[in-house]
Amino acid sequence: MASGRWQPQTIKRYIESIPTSTRVVRVETDAGEGFLKAMGNPEGPHVLACELVGTSLAEWLGLLTLDNAIIWVGSDDEIDFEGGGKAAVGPAFITKAETGMAWGGDVPTLRKLVNPGDISRLIVLDTWIRNCDRYRPEPNRRVNRDNVFLTWSSNKRKGLTLKAIDHTHAFTCGRELTRRLSQLDDVQDKTLFGTFPEFFSFLRRDDVSDCAGRLGTMNTTEATKVVGKIPGEWQVEESIRLAWIKLICDRAKFVSEHIVSWLWPVGPRDDVR
Description:
2 domains; alpha+beta; Phosphatidylinositol 3-kinase Catalytic Subunit, Chain A, Domain 5
């Protein structure tokens, strides 16, 4: 999980804009450099809410994430987006800049992970929150290895650490949030997200079962805490929040009960190949 100790308060300077769908901006804060996702981006404020909720659920599930916070963009900050436009005044989601790399798609790199069990947890997370921006299978296949982020451990000889990043396209695939979030088709979607073929030999039944057990403990109280973090300025009205809480809980129960059999449909074995 993220440490929670990183709490930047002010943006000191703009560094660079990055050509992503949410127009991520690298900035320097009073607590060091970070990557900012701000209001005024072309995809709207709801993707910021998905990022916050998805990252919070990743942490709750036991995955490592980048240190993150909500920071205020002021009228004097003058933050330019790649391709035009500026960050709007208001709360933004920011992650601490950390030296790392996107996974290139090869198995040998995965063998260097100090936390290979988190491959299983990442698949459980992505399936739970229906994250279509890491790996989504056919018929609408999407492969985005940039969202498999690896950092060096404190001692490089000890290997790499997998961290869960970028959940802007969870729940709705980047579409606007609505009160239809908790409809039955979404709750009972059987799509296995996050299942890169190269991940299969690293899956372990015990890891998935343990993670599914944790997932099965999600309840309304916990989900309400997570959704309650969303700033009002991100325009997620109360009826949508209630539907979102219901989806988080109902889908947690559904996925926790079925994901082992989805991944091992032909009976027990040590891995998926």
